[in-house]
Amino acid sequence: MAFSSDAAFELLRRAYSQGRLAHAYLLAGPRGSGKRRLAASLASLVTESGAGLDHPDVHTAEPESKSRRLRIEQTRALEKELQMRSLMGKRKVAIVFEADRMTAEAANGFLKTLEEPPNHSLLLLTSDQPESLPETILSRCITVPLNREHAEELTAAQRELLDGIAALFRERERGIPAVYRLVRTFATLLQQARERITEENETELKSEEAHYRQTTESDWLDEREDHYKALTESRYLRERGLLSETLIAWWADVLRQQQGASGLDLPEHAAQTAQLARAMPTHDALQRLAALEQMRENLGRNIKEDLAIEAAFLRAFGS
């Protein structure tokens, strides 16, 4: 049974008031289920403050690198903080956001903290893909399943991409040509995004030029051109990340369907992901999800974009 974040907090609040709060919880639910808000509320509860994540005894870690991985240095820093004396005399709290993004090394290192938590500590992990976490981590946390609180509106590009995936799985023969059609759809969407973003930023730059034409700063135009060049790349990477997350959400939903979990990321495609869930072994779905996770990591490392995408799609969507 999945809860709203408010209902989950009320249950945990009662457990805390009765002295029954466990030392480690996994707050699991799709994007938009209020995991971060719930974690902040629990931090305020046990530190007996209203400071949430800003309290000096609350320590957090989340993906920060280009590859969006949680590194062992980050989990070690959390462990070190938990070993220190509480500054305010209450519980110390460690929160690992997007825990499924921990590297294997980081997960293995954090496992010891879960097995032997410091006194007066609360460990919170959040994840929208708990099925990707090692069983050793899952078994040492009490999972709090959360429902989505609000539906996220899909962009036109996301809808086109999802239509392409659905069409791929409707085909009787899903050979290499069918996968390459999906690759071309993805590449076309990326190209369209770059062209749109470039055009929008060029328009903005021209409007600034007209407004500041009389400026006496000789290097002003060069600085603004550099600014918009960086902004174009940043916006493009966000767009690419959104489409990559959409691909990952497809296979995450397949895994959720296999486990009977509620709160799908892509409820409009529930029938297709349910059909795949029935027809596909769990380890196969996990491997396909891992291929797209690896693609996201490779793109963050600046590996050649088209090659990273092609290799991942063959593994994720091939027969």
**CATH fold-level name of the largest domain:** Rossmann fold
Number of helices: 11
Class per helix and strand makeup? alpha/beta
Largest beta-sheet details: 5 strands, parallel
Low-confidence stretches: none
* Strand numbers in spatial order across the main sheet: 2-3-4-1-5
H-E string: HEHEHEHEHEHHHHHH
**Share of helix among residues?**
55-70%
Can you describe what's shown?
The chain is of the alpha/beta class and 319 residues long. It has two domains: 141 residues, Rossmann fold; 132 residues, Up-down Bundle (Zinc Finger, Delta Prime, domain 3). It has eleven helices and five strands. It has a five-stranded parallel beta sheet with strand order 2-3-4-1-5, sandwiched between helices. Helix 3 packs parallel to helix 4, helix 7 packs antiparallel against helix 11 and helix 10 packs antiparallel against helix 11. The longest helix has 40 residues. It is globular. The mean pLDDT is 85.
